[in-house]
């Protein structure tokens, strides 16, 4: 059995917004952490649902027909194939559950976040 993992330590170690770090895997599901500021680009995942569990901050998951506002301790599942755009005015820290890593351009990661960048004011 592997050692325990700290969500807080893993989140503190992230250098890029909207990038995911895999902490563990169980039953084919990756348990990942990420932090966000600003927004991703509109995107969808044809191959998996995407589950957000908010740890700190506020996160709004924009859908084409409504916004889902999350606070610490809230969970929301974006069904596979549903277009969405997570957005936050300040830093939000969250857990993502899914079958693969989705923090790439196709997964909505904005160009500005590569290399530790921040969104334009």
From TrEMBL:
- Domain Cupin type-2 span(s) in chain numbering: 30-95
What InterPro entries does the database record attribute to this sequence? Cupin_2, PKS_Associated_Protein, RmlC-like_jellyroll, RmlC_Cupin_sf
The record's Pfam families line, in alphabetical order, gives:
Cupin_2 (PF07883)
Which superkingdom does the taxonomy of this entry point to? Answer: Bacteria
Its protein name is Cupin domain-containing protein
């Amino acid at each position: 059995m592997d050692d325990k993992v700290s969500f807080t330590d893993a989140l503190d170690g992230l250098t890029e917004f909207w990038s995911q770090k895999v902490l563990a895997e169980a039953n084919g599901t990756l348990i990942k952490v990420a932090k966000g500021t600003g927004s991703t680009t509109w995107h969808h995942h044809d191959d998996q649902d995407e589950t957000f569990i908010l740890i700190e901050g506020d996160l709004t998951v924009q859908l084409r027909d409504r916004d889902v506002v999350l606070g610490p301790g809230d969970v929301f599942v974006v069904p596979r194939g549903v277009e969405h755009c997570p957005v936050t005015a300040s830093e939000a820290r969250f857990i993502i559950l899914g079958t693969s890593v989705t923090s790439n351009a196709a997964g909505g990661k904005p160009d500005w976040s590569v290399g530790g960048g921040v969104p334009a004011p």
